[in-house]
Amino acid sequence: MTNYCVIIPTYNNQGSLAGVIDRVLIQTDRIILVNDGSTDSTAQILKSYPQLDLIQIPANAGKGKALQEGFQRAIQKGYSHAITIDSDGQHFPEDIPRFLEALKSEDTNQVLLIGARDMNQDSVPKKSSFGNKFSNFWFWFETGISLKDTQSGFRLYPMEPLKKLNLWTNKFEFEIEVIVKSAWKGMAVKNIPIQVHYDLEKRVSHFRPFKDFARISVLNTVLVIIAIFYIKPRDLIRRVRKIGFKKFLQEDLLGNNDSPRKKALSVALGIGIGLSPFWGFHTVIVIFLAAVLNMNKAIAFAMSNISLPPFIPFLLLASSTVGNYVLGHDVKYSMKDLMQDYEFLKHLEAYLIGSFVLAIISATVFGLVSYLIFSLIDRKRSAQLG
Questions:
Q1: Distances (CA, A) of 279 to 36, 233, 263, 285, 309
Q2: What residue spans define the domains of the chain?
Q3: Using an 8 Å Cβ cutoff, are 354 and 326 in contact?
Q4: Separation CA 130–CA 128 (nearest Å)
């Protein structure tokens, strides 16, 4: 693939900028440099490179904005791909061919490649290593894709799919938003190994720990909500339509490749959360815990729906009855009390205690029973295959 360019966003990196440009020029002369309102000697340095396609942003607008300006220019010039590289000197322009070779090995050009740095090197700042792990976890939770490095700015982007993304952010959080939304659109997002060098004396970082981490946290909160309430249900429906309900039931809900123990624990998790008093948050909690605990998310989510609206009066009655029994109260309710007079609210303590007790007991019983059922199914399947 030869129809690519290199985009270099820069802001006040006078100490490393010329060296980065010189080394990139050895690889290609198709360079789009975005000067994001630099106030140091960047403008003077750039006068020595008239061959660059230069974009000047008058006042610092953020790395995300600089990248978007570079992408727009790349699209206007007809490039199919753009490789982005930071101007602080941590990346090795000599790794550019790695991206091109990795792209050749893919079945499709619609893949976003992120350079994976070795974050265990002694020269890597602790905050960078922690931030990367933090970002990797939330990217996995939001997309289901596990990556070693989601924060590296050394990347290869396909231009055509970027046109379809609705992107909101302009600062450092942009590089998280763009890969999450690319994955949601069905684009493959992968890592390739790259070299990295942190010169702590010369390197200038514009990352503001409080403000930028807060922005990233807010973005991840929004993305998690969208993932739970829209993306994951959407993908579930699409899969059912694609493979049919019977096959979905066999492969996803029953999890042919999952052990009986894992399936049973997923049932227990779903039942336990579904019967808990966290109304309105059951879906969020069960999907989060299923992801973190590596459970069968389809089973856990399905079982948590024991708290669907038609079942609520019966669950309230059962929880309140159990709670009063545990507390030794001789109180009984009718459906009229629950549905009209809300008498149980006068004994909220009994309901809360009862709901937790009922959740634990039910999760244990359903988990054990489902384990026996899944074990029998697994043995039967093994016997048929054998």
A1: 47, 19, 24, 10, 11
A2: 4-227, 246-385
A3: yes
A4: 5
Among 198-202, 220-224, 309-313, top mean pLDDT goes to 220-224
- Residue 334: the pLDDT is 66
Measured distance CA(252)–CA(241) in Å, rounded: 13
User: How far is 22 from 44, CA to CA, in rounded Å?
Assistant: 15
pTM: 0.73
Q: How many CB atoms lie within 10 A of CB 338?
A: 19
CA dist 208 and 230 (Å) reads: 32
Chain-centroid distance, C-alpha 164: 19
Q: How far is Cα 130 from Cα 144, in angstroms, rounded to an integer?
A: 20
- Specify the 3-state DSSP secondary structure of 384: helix
Domain 4-227 = CATH 3.40.50.300: no
Count of CB atoms situated within 10 Å of the CB of 283: 18
Average pLDDT, the chain: 87
